[in-house]
Amino acid sequence: MVPARRPTVRQPRWHRRPNARPEEILAAAQVVFGEQGFARAKLEDVARRAGVSKGTLYLYFDSKETLFREMVRARIVPSVAAGEEFVRTYQGPARDLLVELVRRMWDTIRHPAMASITRLVQSELHNFPELARFYFDEVILRGRRLLQSVLDRGVASGEFRADLQRFACRGLPHMMVFSAQTQCFFHAMDPELLTDDQVLEGILDLFLRGVEARPVAGPVS
Amino acid sequence: MVPARRPTVRQPRWHRRPNARPEEILAAAQVVFGEQGFARAKLEDVARRAGVSKGTLYLYFDSKETLFREMVRARIVPSVAAGEEFVRTYQGPARDLLVELVRRMWDTIRHPAMASITRLVQSELHNFPELARFYFDEVILRGRRLLQSVLDRGVASGEFRADLQRFACRGLPHMMVFSAQTQCFFHAMDPELLTDDQVLEGILDLFLRGVEARPVAGPVS
DNA sequence: TATATCTTACTGACCGGTCAGTTACTTAAA
DNA sequence: TTTAAGTAACTGACCGGTCAGTAAGATATA
Fold it and tell me: What is the Cα–Cα distance from B12 to B56, expressed in whole angstroms?
């Protein structure tokens, strides 16, 4: 009798997929860094989740730090660009634009994977000056300017208060990002849970009241 | 000639100060954890800053994790209690109470040492379920209820909108905490810096507009 | 079409540094 | 003299980063 080893069609233990690897590694890194934070995250875990060995990580990324930076960049920049594109092409009242922009921002940042990134960046900034610089310029500043442009439109059209403070374009994203983090991370222990939609409506309700020239009561949209 | 070594009055190399040590260690831990985050922080550094050796830490705290938890507890709970005491004893319009409470909260959380703690907690929650539970119950929930009670007073007196959303008592602290963190950590690289006072006025301006029944334009106080 | 040759994506054992926690000893001070 | 506060050398687990070796699979040749 012939032994059963060596089946007729041999399955390779791994495949060469140099084009797919970087994205897969970034996706794995997003999960592991998001769950563990930078310092606790083990590259061994990132590798396992990406379906490769630890050595392979180093074929595509110089170091743990580089991997972290590239992951943040790859995940965040497209969102900001999408927001800018939306505002650039929007036709209509500033109020509606603001409402829709806030909805889209909320839809982006309320997902745990995204909330993890904003939290990560916030907590690791101090250790990665280069990342901090990049994040501040390409995310915070661009986001702030984007929102300010929407507010400016509304002021020009008389929809928003002429005496808006410079803080307005910061307060909104601050409230949104932190609300998203709280929704994600305290979800399990909150006895007075709000749904994501309730939070969104609450944000819009407060902020519109805060900026509109002639606020009216009642539902937002 | 007599050699100069061994002066007549010998200074002890160290003193036994069992009552003072814990607080000194907590203070050192606040700085080091605040600067480095939990995982990067070295107990060696905490010990050096506290003026003791590493072994001494273990005379007063079971582990790195315990030290971290105790530090957060010791620094945060008094602030919450102070806010509660202030609201409990306040006589006057709800609007003034709200303004003054926000001022005091801002005065507390805008300091880097405090902003570091809120950031720390946010980023380490996942790794310390016990701390998360404690923080949520003793800080977030208590803070939320405190603010809600102020809002309720205003609604009852007709100063605030009767249709306030449940989100209102969360949005304000979210905006404040995140604004404080941003003020602290991006201070160096922001080309459009606002002063702490400008941020406070901006927060009050937005939020009062958002909650008042008959908002009026103009400066806050 | 078959197979020999070659390139390179990929593996995984290993090394060296780091650091939380321990312990054997020292010393302040009651 | 006693004892508890404090020290500092030590241990062992852990993990980022390396590199010698392996095998997938492309290409050349018959």
Answer: 17
For the cut 50, the answer to whether the pLDDT of residue A180 exceeds it is yes
Which token pair is A164? 């808006």
Chain B residues with beta carbon closer than 8 angstroms to that of A210: 205-207, 209-210
Q: What is the pTM of this model?
A: 0.91
Rounded CA separation B98/B211 (Å): 11
Residues (44-63, chain B) with CB within 7 Å of strand C atoms:
44, 54-55, 58, 63
Is there contact between A18 and strand C, defined as CB under 7 Å from any strand atom?
Answer: yes
Phi-psi region of B195 (alpha: psi -120 to 50; beta: other; left: phi over 0): beta
**Residue A212 β-bridge partners:** A160
Nearest-angstrom CA–CA distance, A215 and A212? 5
Helix-helix angle B196-211:B94-109, to 10 degrees: 150
Number of H helices, E strands in chain A: 10, 0
Residue located via tokens 């950590």: B185
Instruction: State the residue for tokens 């209102």.
Output: B168
> In angstroms, what separates the C-alpha of B52 from chain A's closest C-alpha?
26
Q: Which residue has the higher pLDDT, B8 or A129?
A: A129
A8-44: burial string, b at 16+ Cβ within 10 Å, e else: eeeeeeeeeeeeebbeebbbbbbbbbbebbbbbbebe
CA distances from A109 to A28, A180, A184, B127, B181 (A): 19, 6, 10, 22, 18
* pLDDT for residue A215: 63
